[in-house]
Amino acid sequence: MVILNPKSQLSMIRDIQTLLLSHKRIHLRWLKGHIGYLDKEYADKLVKEAITKGTFVMAFFLPEPLSYLKSEIRSAALSIWQDNWDN
After folding, report:
1. Which InterPro entries would you find in this protein's record (predicted)?
2. Cβ 36 vs Cβ 49: under 8 Å
3. Distance set, CA 24 to CA 16, 42, 51, 55 (Å)
4. I want to staple 50 with a disulfide (CB 3.0 to 4.6 A). Which of 45, 57, 66, 77 is the partner?
5. pLDDT in tens, 65-78
């Protein structure tokens, strides 16, 4: 797991490691990009939630996993092929 790698050079991972070492609670949430969340809107929601609950929120927006992207590309390619075959 990359978060446990002490030699990681990714700044986001280093930030998470720092929080973990200071005994902070971290909640990770996965949001698909296509379900209507916009980065700015979601960040605003997190900030409001942090203010009302008295917690600190650090938001990272990660890219889709490679497996998901491959699946989407495969599905789109199959759809194009099927359209060409039918016509």
Report:
1. RNaseH-like_sf, RNaseH_sf
2. no
3. 9, 22, 17, 10
4. 57
5. 778 778 888 888 88
Q: What dihedral do alpha carbons 72, 40, 43, 6 form, nearest 10°?
A: 60
Give the single-character DSSP code of 8.
Answer: -
- What CA–CA distance (Å, rounded) separates 18 from 8? 12
**In what helix (H) or strand (E) does residue 21 lie, and over which residues does it extend?**
helix 11-21
Q: What is the pTM of this model?
A: 0.35
For residue 32, which amino acid is it? K
> What angle (nearest 5°) sits at the alpha carbon of residue 59, between those of residues 36 and 12?
125
> CB under 8 Å to 57, separation ≥6 — which residues?
46, 47, 49, 50
